[in-house]
Amino acid sequence: MAAFGENVVRLGGVLQAKQDQAEEFDTERRFQEFTWGQSQVLDKAMREVEPGKASRFADERTGSYVENARAFFETVPERLKPKYDGRLFDVEREFYGSAANFARGEQKRFSINAIGDLVKR
Questions:
Q1: CB of 99 within 8 A of CB of 62?
Q2: What is residue 7's predicted lDDT score, i.e. its pLDDT?
Q3: What are the residues whose beta carbons fall under 8 Å from the beta carbon of 56, sequence distance 6 or more?
Q4: Residues of the chain falling short of pLDDT 50
Protein backbone atom coordinates (compact mmCIF):
# COMPACT_ATOMS: atom_id res chain seq x y z
CA MET A 1 0.00 0.00 0.00
CA ALA A 2 2.87 2.38 0.88
CA ALA A 3 4.55 1.65 -2.48
CA PHE A 4 1.28 2.33 -4.27
CA GLY A 5 0.97 5.66 -2.45
CA GLU A 6 4.54 6.60 -3.39
CA ASN A 7 3.82 5.75 -7.03
CA VAL A 8 0.67 7.88 -7.03
CA VAL A 9 2.61 10.82 -5.54
CA ARG A 10 5.40 10.34 -8.08
CA LEU A 11 2.87 10.18 -10.93
CA GLY A 12 1.22 13.34 -9.63
CA GLY A 13 4.59 15.08 -9.64
CA VAL A 14 5.27 13.98 -13.22
CA LEU A 15 1.83 15.15 -14.36
CA GLN A 16 2.28 18.51 -12.61
CA ALA A 17 5.69 18.97 -14.23
CA LYS A 18 4.19 18.27 -17.67
CA GLN A 19 1.36 20.69 -17.01
CA ASP A 20 3.84 23.37 -15.85
CA GLN A 21 5.93 22.77 -18.95
CA ALA A 22 2.90 23.14 -21.24
CA GLU A 23 1.80 26.28 -19.38
CA GLU A 24 5.25 27.82 -19.71
CA PHE A 25 5.41 26.97 -23.43
CA ASP A 26 2.00 28.57 -24.02
CA THR A 27 2.97 31.69 -22.06
CA GLU A 28 6.21 32.03 -24.01
CA ARG A 29 4.35 31.64 -27.31
CA ARG A 30 1.86 34.33 -26.29
CA PHE A 31 4.73 36.58 -25.13
CA GLN A 32 6.43 36.26 -28.51
CA GLU A 33 3.15 37.06 -30.29
CA PHE A 34 2.61 40.03 -27.98
CA THR A 35 6.06 41.52 -28.56
CA TRP A 36 5.77 40.98 -32.31
CA GLY A 37 2.41 42.73 -32.34
CA GLN A 38 3.79 45.62 -30.31
CA SER A 39 6.72 45.90 -32.74
CA GLN A 40 4.24 46.16 -35.60
CA VAL A 41 2.28 48.87 -33.75
CA LEU A 42 5.48 50.84 -33.14
CA ASP A 43 6.54 50.51 -36.77
CA LYS A 44 3.13 51.67 -37.99
CA ALA A 45 3.19 54.64 -35.60
CA MET A 46 6.64 55.61 -36.89
CA ARG A 47 5.38 55.57 -40.47
CA GLU A 48 2.29 57.61 -39.63
CA VAL A 49 3.76 60.31 -37.37
CA GLU A 50 3.05 63.78 -38.68
CA PRO A 51 6.03 66.01 -39.46
CA GLY A 52 6.86 68.16 -36.46
CA LYS A 53 4.68 66.11 -34.08
CA ALA A 54 7.29 63.62 -32.90
CA SER A 55 8.41 65.43 -29.74
CA ARG A 56 6.22 63.29 -27.42
CA PHE A 57 6.34 60.20 -29.61
CA ALA A 58 8.49 58.07 -27.26
CA ASP A 59 6.37 58.85 -24.19
CA GLU A 60 3.11 58.19 -26.03
CA ARG A 61 4.35 54.91 -27.49
CA THR A 62 5.73 53.76 -24.15
CA GLY A 63 2.46 54.63 -22.42
CA SER A 64 0.53 52.60 -24.97
CA TYR A 65 2.93 49.68 -24.58
CA VAL A 66 2.67 49.75 -20.78
CA GLU A 67 -1.13 49.53 -20.95
CA ASN A 68 -0.96 46.56 -23.32
CA ALA A 69 1.78 44.91 -21.28
CA ARG A 70 -0.32 45.16 -18.12
CA ALA A 71 -3.19 43.42 -19.91
CA PHE A 72 -0.84 40.67 -21.07
CA PHE A 73 0.73 40.35 -17.61
CA GLU A 74 -2.68 39.67 -16.09
CA THR A 75 -2.87 36.48 -18.17
CA VAL A 76 0.51 35.17 -17.03
CA PRO A 77 0.35 32.31 -14.50
CA GLU A 78 1.33 33.39 -10.99
CA ARG A 79 4.47 31.25 -10.82
CA LEU A 80 5.79 32.80 -14.07
CA LYS A 81 5.04 36.44 -13.22
CA PRO A 82 8.53 37.32 -11.89
CA LYS A 83 10.15 36.05 -15.09
CA TYR A 84 7.75 37.84 -17.44
CA ASP A 85 7.72 41.03 -15.41
CA GLY A 86 11.43 41.39 -16.12
CA ARG A 87 11.07 40.44 -19.76
CA LEU A 88 8.23 42.90 -20.33
CA PHE A 89 10.32 45.65 -18.76
CA ASP A 90 13.26 44.79 -21.04
CA VAL A 91 10.98 45.10 -24.07
CA GLU A 92 9.65 48.42 -22.75
CA ARG A 93 13.19 49.79 -22.47
CA GLU A 94 14.01 48.57 -25.98
CA PHE A 95 10.86 50.12 -27.45
CA TYR A 96 11.44 53.40 -25.61
CA GLY A 97 14.99 53.59 -26.95
CA SER A 98 13.83 52.93 -30.51
CA ALA A 99 10.98 55.42 -30.23
CA ALA A 100 13.20 58.10 -28.65
CA ASN A 101 15.87 57.71 -31.35
CA PHE A 102 13.20 57.92 -34.02
CA ALA A 103 11.62 61.00 -32.41
CA ARG A 104 14.94 62.82 -32.15
CA GLY A 105 15.79 62.01 -35.76
CA GLU A 106 12.35 63.03 -36.95
CA GLN A 107 12.45 66.32 -35.04
CA LYS A 108 15.91 67.04 -36.41
CA ARG A 109 14.80 66.26 -39.96
CA PHE A 110 11.73 68.46 -39.56
CA SER A 111 13.81 71.35 -38.18
CA ILE A 112 16.34 71.11 -41.00
CA ASN A 113 13.55 71.02 -43.58
CA ALA A 114 11.81 74.00 -41.94
CA ILE A 115 15.05 76.01 -42.00
CA GLY A 116 15.59 75.02 -45.63
CA ASP A 117 12.06 76.14 -46.52
CA LEU A 118 12.62 79.44 -44.75
CA VAL A 119 15.88 80.01 -46.64
CA LYS A 120 14.16 79.31 -49.97
CA ARG A 121 11.52 81.94 -49.21
A1: yes
A2: 66
A3: 103
A4: none
Rg (CA), the chain: 23
Helices (H) and strands (E) in the chain, counts: 3, 0
Say how many C-beta atoms besides its own lie within 10 A of residue 61's C-beta.
23
Apex 45 CA angle, 39 and 49, nearest 5:
155
Report whether 92 contacts 66 (CB < 8 A): yes
**How far is 113 from 75, CA to CA, in rounded Å?**
46
The one-character DSSP state at 50 is: P
Best CA proximity match to 99, nearest among 51, 59, 44, 40: 59
How far apart, in whole angstroms, are the C-alpha atoms of residue 118 and residue 112?
Answer: 10
**Between helices 57-74 and 2-48, what is the axis angle to 10°?**
160
pTM: 0.75
Contact 91, 35 (CB under 8 A): yes
